[in-house]
């Protein structure tokens, strides 16, 4: 249903190796997820699993893992990494709003603010319906999303950075972020100019990110028969405040 929309919003993650290099050492969400998984021996599902940053260490801990992502390049790298770690994970390319899996799970999770790729109320609802179909009774869904801080979103953010890449070429990156208060979508654009033997090569990418407010999250949960277990301001269980950078939502399916 939303496949084309999601695939058109993957420019920022076009290079799986670069993505993996940037985020592979981040562990705070992993600690939270592992504690939530506890001692279950039933399969666990990660949505938008990317290069396997969480799926692989979870499998190394002995959990049976299913990883779903829309980006085949990310999945290919995840499969390579899993093989190198000598763990077996059920990876598949799927639209999270139309999951097709052979199992049900007591725990489904989605991290790295992937929830922001669901740009409309319709797609968010479709996600919850799909998740619900693959949760066991009283199963739990954990996800995160950036907290909308209005004082930051109300201004156009423009940053210019210059660095030298691995080939000793000078690279200038111009970042621009503009928030639409009606759609609640932040449009992020980067123009990269690389000096190659005094010839400038230009590359542009963009991404759209939806910001969802806490009361909207509560409405979604209520509409789809989930109860809120906790809503935190960080993966370290910090209280959620108006200045929190993140919202960590831990909810449970009510049957």
The run of helices and strands is HHHEHEHEEHEHEEEEHEE
Query: Globular, elongated, flat, extended or rod-shaped: what is the shape?
Result: globular
CATH homologous superfamily of the largest domain - what is it?
Vaccinia Virus protein VP39
Integer average pLDDT: 92
CATH architecture of the largest domain: 3-Layer(aba) Sandwich
CATH class of the largest domain: Alpha Beta
- Specify the biggest β-sheet: 7 strands, mixed
Order of strands in the sheet with the most strands? 3-2-1-4-5-11-10
* Cα separation of the termini: 26 Å
What's the structural domain tally? 2
How is the CATH topology of the largest domain named? Rossmann fold
Structural class: alpha/beta
Strand content: 25-35%
Number of helices: 8
Question: Which regions contain 5 or more consecutive residues with pLDDT less than 50?
Answer: none
The gyration radius over C-alpha positions equals 19 Å
Describe the structure.
This protein has 255 residues and is α/β, with parallel strands linked by helices. The chain has helices at residues 3-7, 16-23, 28-37, 55-60, 72-84, 121-133, 150-153, 214-223, and strands spanning 44-47, 65-69, 90-93, 105-110, 135-146, 157-164, 170-180, 185-196, 199-210, 226-232, 246-253. It folds into two domains: 3-147 and 212-253, Vaccinia Virus protein VP39 (Rossmann fold); 150-210, Single Sheet (N-terminal domain of TfIIb), CATH 2.20.25. It contains eight helices and eleven strands. Strands 3-2-1-4-5-11-10 form a seven-stranded mixed β-sheet, with helices on both faces. Residues 44-139 form the Methyltransferase domain. This is Class I SAM-dependent methyltransferase. Its EC number is 2.1.-.-.
